[in-house]
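== Protein entry: sequence and backbone fold ==
=== Local backbone shapes as whole numbers ===
==== Amino acids and backbone structure tokens ====
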Amino acid sequence: MSFFKNIFSKEKKETLDKGLEKTKTTFFDKLSKAVAGKSKVDDDVLDNLEEILVSSDVGVNTTLKIIDRIEARVSKDKFLGTDELNKILREEIAGLLSEIDSGNATEFEIPENKKPYVIMVVGVNGVGKTTTIGKLAYQFKKAGKKVVLGAADTFRAAAIDQLQIWADRTDVILVKQSMGSDPASVAFDTLQSAVNQNADVVIIDTAGRLHNKVNLMNELTKVKRVMQKVIPDAPHDVLLVLDGSTGQNAFEQAKQFTAATEVTSLAVTKLDGTAKGGVVIGISDQFKIPVKYIGVGEGMEDLQVFNKFEFVDSFFK
């Protein structure tokens, strides 16, 4: 297909390839066993492929869509050899991801007509939320943007301390209050500070408690409402951070958070240490929420803008 061409820099592409190595190796080991001794794609091969996709955390519903697409090609082309399966899978997964309106960017960009551009970050504790915020701050600062962070996860002292470390490391402004302060008050102060300092990007951290969805919903709604007193259309992006290494648990978190608040984009972290990279495909498809960023390593540069074509290219390389 014509869209498979490198649009990332060589270094970024190598990082992506390396980050997906574990997922790719596991997937293709299983695939080669599934087609061993077979010359054409038949019902047995498709049954095995279905099992492989589900066990790679692509998710049942998305797997069934992919299988349906391949079955349609098998019936149309009559004879499809197993040697063509890799190419067909690659094309059909790219086609599926193309139906979601996102994933074509290659750089860390924000709309020019929104200043400051406000990102509210949500997600349970332990998924890499604070690290993602720090890496986002680094990338936006590197792109020449003035960045302000807001420590509105006032439930945990460690969250405020961790954000301070990232603010110091990336040399950006952090607005914070003491532990136990009202998160909405922190968000209000952060946006006022950003407007006064003519900042380009504001990133607000929020508490990651999911044990009581009603409380979470009320808190996030209040934070949004208070932010809108300063910037009427804030937040411009509600970014949900998910840990890719947790596989099906990431699906469950996505379900809980999309029920609790209006999530507009996703960041999937920790893909480098896992064979569960297929979760990106399933989550994109099932929730119809664009994956905006993926974490493919621990370095500052290893948070990448998600590009669906580069992702599929690296997955099937």
